[in-house]
Request: fold
Amino acid sequence: MSGFFCLQWHITNRCDQRCRHCYIFNSKNPIPSKEWTLEDAKLLINDYLGFCGKYDKTPHISLTGGDPILHPDFWKIIGLLHEKEIQFSILGNPFHLSPGAIIRLKEAGCKSYQVSLDGLRGTHDSMRMEGSFDSTIKAIELLNEYGLSPAVMTTASRVNWEEIPELTKIIVNHKAKQCSFARYCPTHGDTESNLTPDEYHIFLNRMWDVYHNLEGRGTTFYLKDHLWKIILKEKSLLLTEDDGIVYDGCHCGIAHLTLLEDGTFYACRRFDSPIGNFPTPIEDIFFGEKEDWYRQIHKIDGCSKCELLNYCRGCRAVAFGTSGDYFAKDPQCWLK
Ligand SMILES: C[S@@+](CC[C@H](N)C(=O)[O-])C[C@H]1O[C@@H](n2cnc3c(N)ncnc32)[C@H](O)[C@@H]1O
Ligand code: SF4
Ligand code: SF4
Reply:
């Protein structure tokens, strides 16, 4: 197999929380009221497997929402993935995770369950919901107790960046198997929580030290933000090829698709990037003109002349959310 082709599948937007930063509830777009039916889920899964088979890709689904477990056919959809032996992980909430649910997920082949922590207790609860921090910590403990890998994601912005080093220690002390952060992508012109490029450079270096100090404690730190590539380059830890092949970086147009609750395909969920609708075959969506538009990486301001073009490209959703232009310079990139 020549690598993964990942599908981030939002099966519902039902959710117990209304987080201040959430792209579902705080974007300019109306919230779609539809969600996936079991019949359509079957068709989609068959199409996805056919696509991966044809292009020799390993399928991986990130099943998410909202909180995917709140979908009325959640367990049936999980059953379909199990039956077809598709690798999957869940990006969900902590509130409906019982020992029984965790055991069922494990038996169905779920690889990991990601929850979010967006700051220390006060900050997290003010962004999400009173009691959410403690529920999330309990969920991490329960996932560990019943043997399903807990992963923790943090959405970083000016609101919480100073708390993330301390939060990372808490995440490690609770034995999360994976820990990472991604930047907040402004959804309605709210750019005041963006960090400056210099602040972000300082922050990534600080997090590098935090990760090194916490090494060997059972948590893998995933360098999710592509601007980490600049840090790796600065530390002479990244060797780059100049052969025109896209090796890594922003997934828009590359080995990844997002599918919304209402059947709209997006290049990336973190900004308004519709590229077609189910039941159009994935092959036509992925190789279609609309998705091609997101692959014009030589038009990206700054990146087009950068030696890291084929490794980074920053986050196009942060660029779009900040300026309204997909091809704008990443607002936190500190390279001149
Ligand atoms: C939409 S949620 C779905 C899973 C689950 N409900 C949760 O909150 O983790 C997936 C992730 O997207 C993040 N997210 C939501 N809105 C965002 C935005 N505007 N920019 C960046 N990340 C965002 C959430 O914080 C969460 O980590
Ligand atoms: S819990 Fe997740 S899906 Fe629900 S509002 Fe918060 S970020 Fe959005
Ligand atoms: S725009 Fe690219 S880097 Fe940003 S979240 Fe989407 S796929 Fe990831």
